[in-house]
């Protein structure tokens, strides 16, 4: 009998990643429909004290695998640890973040467990039995297909664990409730070091001094209409006034003007800021997929028929080269008052 909804609770240097909390929020909803528990798998070294944070965000149980082998993320070590847990516990569902670690780990586990995995899900639901072709209580995993032109809902064909990855920013975490009670279970894994083919020699951190765009409260995003580095310098000036981050459409990443980690959209990141400026961005479906959940969207585009205006809360029809400096100037004066 498979049971419970599991979340791989990713931590880096002992810091629980926001996506883990978002997944716990979704897992809570799924588990409540199923009448099951939410279980977090927390793997790492000297990280047991983080378990309570996971309980506060919705976990009923936290399985802690604490081992020196798991100090840094290395595929084989983490695969062995999480595989052992899943293989023994036989969960109903396991959710992973679709970031670099989750995208590396989840397919390994899928292959080792010989079970399916649906990547980059945007919606997760439990079937209610109303569809005669689909039994009740199955996980329905929805994700964009065919370049984002349609949404496909996928159901695991095999019996056993159902696994999905979800991008950061797609699901919403629950409010933190420090009064929640849960069980912290210490779990020992016997590793097979003969399979450790990769050795970590050195960790070099990217020194960017930038906030990840998935965590920014305000994003000033530029597209082909901004066009060049000088145009993005203007967006940076506006972002500085607003304490915001600069992001972009894929067109500007493909043109080599912006790095991929700043790309919003289906093949970039999903963002949900309080305020999203779309500057010279047409509003292609693949871009919208990554930002349409933003609280407030302000678009500037010289084409009044640009599709971005269909999702924008406010729109300015005009030239970004003129409007961005005017906006920067005006906001600077207003915010100084
Ligand atoms: C499988 C797949 C995945 C994809 N993934 C992504 C993704 O993750 N993210 C993403 O963004 N795209 C993605 N794309 C690409 C997407 O389809 C679009 O090509 C891309 O979003 C277009 O970027 P853009 O809006 O900057 O450029 P364009 O579509 O060229 O639009 C530029 C806009 O700027 C306006 N403009 C021009 N000059 C000015 C000016 N001076 N002032 C004001 N406005 C001006 C124009 O009117 C136009 O609306 C993907 C495509 C595919 C097929």
What can you tell me about this protein's structure?
It is globular, with a radius of gyration of 22 Å. Helix content is 29%, strand content 25%. The protein has nine helices and 17 strands. With 337 residues, it is α/β, with parallel strands linked by helices. The protein folds into two domains: 3-195, 3-Layer(aba) Sandwich (Rossmann fold), CATH 3.40.50.620; 218-336, Rossmann fold (3-Layer(aba) Sandwich). Helix 3 crosses helix 4 and helix 5 packs parallel to helix 9. It has a seven-stranded parallel sheet with strand order 7-11-6-1-4-5-12. It has a five-stranded parallel sheet with strand order 14-13-15-16-17. Strands 8-9-10 form a three-stranded antiparallel sheet. Flavin-adenine dinucleotide (FAD) is lined by residues 147, 223-225, 249-251, 263-268, 280-282, 284, 286-287, 290, 300-303, 306, 319-321. Flavin-adenine dinucleotide binds at residues 147, 223-225, 249-251, 263-268, 280-282, 284, 286-287, 290, 300-303, 306, 319-321.
């Amino acid at each position: 009998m498979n049971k419970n909804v599991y979340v791989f609770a990713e931590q880096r240097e002992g810091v629980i990643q926001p996506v883990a909390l978002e997944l716990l929020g979704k897992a809570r909803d799924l588990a409540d429909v199923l009448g099951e528990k939410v279980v977090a798998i927390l793997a790492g070294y000297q990280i047991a004290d983080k378990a309570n944070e996971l309980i506060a965000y919705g976990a009923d149980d936290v399985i802690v695998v604490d081992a020196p082998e798991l100090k840094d993320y290395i595929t084989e070590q983490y695969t062995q640890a999480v595989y052992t847990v899943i293989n023994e516990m036989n969960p109903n569902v396991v959710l992973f973040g679709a970031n670099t670690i989750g995208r590396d780990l989840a397919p390994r586990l899928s292959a080792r467990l010989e079970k399916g995995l649906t990547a980059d899900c945007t919606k997760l639901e439990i079937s209610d039995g109303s569809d005669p072709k689909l039994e009740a209580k199955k996980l329905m995993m929805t994700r964009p297909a065919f370049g984002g032109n349609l949404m496909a809902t996928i159901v695991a064909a095999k019996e056993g664990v159902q696994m999905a990855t979800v991008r950061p920013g797609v699901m919403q975490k629950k409010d933190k409730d420090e009064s929640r009670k849960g069980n912290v279970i210490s779990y020992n894994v016997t590793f097979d070091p003969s399979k450790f083919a990769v050795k970590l020699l050195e960790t070099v951190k990217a020194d960017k001094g930038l906030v990840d765009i998935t965590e920014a409260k305000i994003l000033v995003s530029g597209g082909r209409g901004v066009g060049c580095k000088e145009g993005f310098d203007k967006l940076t000036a506006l972002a500085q006034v607003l304490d915001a981050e600069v992001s972009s459409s894929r067109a500007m990443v493909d043109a080599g003007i912006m790095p991929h980690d700043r790309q919003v959209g289906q093949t970039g990141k999903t963002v949900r800021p309080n305020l999203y400026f779309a500057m010279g961005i047409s509003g292609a479906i693949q871009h919208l997929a990554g930002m349409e959940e933003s609280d407030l969207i302000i678009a500037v585009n010289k084409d009044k028929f640009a599709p971005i205006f269909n999702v924008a809360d406010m729109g300015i029809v005009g030239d970004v080269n003129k409007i961005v400096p005017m906006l920067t100037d005006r906001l600077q004066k207003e915010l100084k008052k």
